[in-house]
Amino acid sequence: MSSYSPDPKRYSQIPYRHCGKNGLKLPPLSLGLWQNFGELNPLPQQTEILTAAFDAGITHFDLANNYGPPADAAEKNFGKIFQENFNSFRHELVISTKAGYYGWEGPYGDGGSRKYLLSSIERSLRHLQIDYVDIFYHHRPDPDTPLEETMQALDQIVRQGKALYIGLSNYSGEQTVEAASLLKSLGTPCLIHQPVYNMLNRKLESDLIPALRETQIGCIPFSPLAQGLLTNRYLKGIPEDSRVGRGSLFLKQNQITPKLLETVHKLDKIANNREQSLAQMALAWILRLPEITSVLIGASSVQQLHQNIDCLKNLKFSEAELKEIDQILD
Ligand SMILES: NC(=O)c1ccc[n+]([C@@H]2O[C@H](COP(=O)([O-])OP(=O)(O)OC[C@H]3O[C@@H](n4cnc5c(N)ncnc54)[C@H](OP(=O)(O)O)[C@@H]3O)[C@@H](O)[C@H]2O)c1
After folding, report:
1. Is 47's C-beta closer than 6 angstroms to any atom of ligand 1?
2. Does the residue 92 lie in any domain?
3. Helix, strand, coil distribution of the chain in percent, nearest 5
4. Less Cβ crowding at N or C end of the chain, within 10 Å?
């Protein structure tokens, strides 16, 4: 039995935002469990990050069936940590999970079929040791499954009481409008979209934002720090304990080019003038868009988490700063 007792002041610290036109509110920063909550990171360290987040008012934790490494591990670890520390606070938490990428071997462990999605939510709930998730996402569009089948499966998951809301991830603007219209006609409107968005990847601005305005669904961008590239992490080489140093499959040494470092150094200078770290400025820059509900961060330590939360102390950008950032990113 844990002795964890959350900070009683946790709700006085940050303003919550509505998911588009929906009733649900999320904190401006949410915590994702993609890479730091698998078998490589000790459970006490994971617990420390999750409880520090909740203490700071971060009520939303984001998972997926394939998070780890290996796949399933993050959900299983979260389940253990939840039972020990958060069981009495289930009603104060928004827990999400997803299916859509490779989940398990065989013909039913990938894609967007009814079979895969309904099986996956069952497995996820078992791993997470909870009765329902707050948000269930289709993780990526599946060109080989009719969109109607995928949306009907998502609707059914809500009707079964296994999820409160539905989200879409990695869908293009056009796909989002079509999927949102199907979900609405089924009576389960889409709550939120989870796209990639950061200073190094701005596709969302031209593609997805118009679709989000049209459908009025919320938006929670992932990899806001480009997995650590938009921080001081790699400015003086590659630390052994970093995502690149630990040999992540998703962030490789060859992505740290001289051109990238030049860009990062220039951005770092602007951040310093704003009396922020580069990570803080990169997060604040995403929150400048009114369509953004929350920013989905990853953190490998409590220090990173606290530093990132402090971005909320300065979310304002002058026109000159925004112009200079645009010029650097051009
Ligand atoms: N829907 C999707 O397809 C999809 C895809 C990817 C991610 N996601 C979600 O988005 C979440 C966040 O993604 P992400 O982990 O790529 O986010 P991120 O915030 O861009 O990167 C997190 C990493 O950046 C480094 N970092 C964070 N704060 C730092 C700081 N203040 N100073 C220095 N370094 C710092 C850490 O790297 P080190 O580990 O090197 O310390 C940390 O692990 C995931 O957990 C997941 O929930 C969704």
Report:
1. no
2. yes
3. 45, 15, 40
4. C
Predicted local confidence at residue 3, as pLDDT: 83
pLDDT in tens, 153-174: 999 999 999 999 999 999 999 9
- Provide the pLDDT confidence category of residue 2 given band limits of 50, 70 and 90: confident
Dump pLDDT digits (tens) for 38-61: 999 999 999 999 999 999 999 999
Residues 207-239: tens digit of each pLDDT = 999 999 999 999 999 999 999 999 999 999 999
Pocket flag, ligand 1, residue 225 (CB < 6 Å): yes
Question: What residues have CB less than 8 Å from 15, skipping those under 6 apart?
Answer: 28
CA of 222 to the centre of ligand 1 (A): 8
Angle (deg, nearest 10), helices 278-287 and 302-309: 50
- pTM beyond 0.90: the answer is yes
Residue 141, ligand 1, Cβ within 6 A: no
Q: What is the per-residue pLDDT for 13?
A: 86
Ligand 1 pocket, 117 CB below 6 A?
no
Total of domains in the chain:
1
Instruction: Give the model confidence (pLDDT) of 63-89 as tens digits.
Output: 999 999 999 999 999 999 999 999 999
Distance 225 CA to ligand 1 centre (A): 6
DSSP for 233-263 reads TTTTS--TTSTTTTT-SSS-GGG--HHHHHH
**Coil, strand or helix at 1:** coil
**Domain-embedded: residue 214:** yes
CATH number of the domain encompassing residue 108: 3.20.20.100
* Top mutation candidate among 63, 231, 309 for ligand 1, by most atoms within 8 Å of CB: 231
Query: Residue 42 is part of which domain span?
Result: 10-236+276-317
- Which phi and psi angles does 59 have, rounded to 5°? -95, -5
Q: Is the CB of 309 under 6 A from ligand 1?
A: no
Considering the domain boundaries, does residue 199 fall inside one? yes
Residue 131: inside a domain: yes
Cβ proximity of 167 and 194 under 8 Å = yes
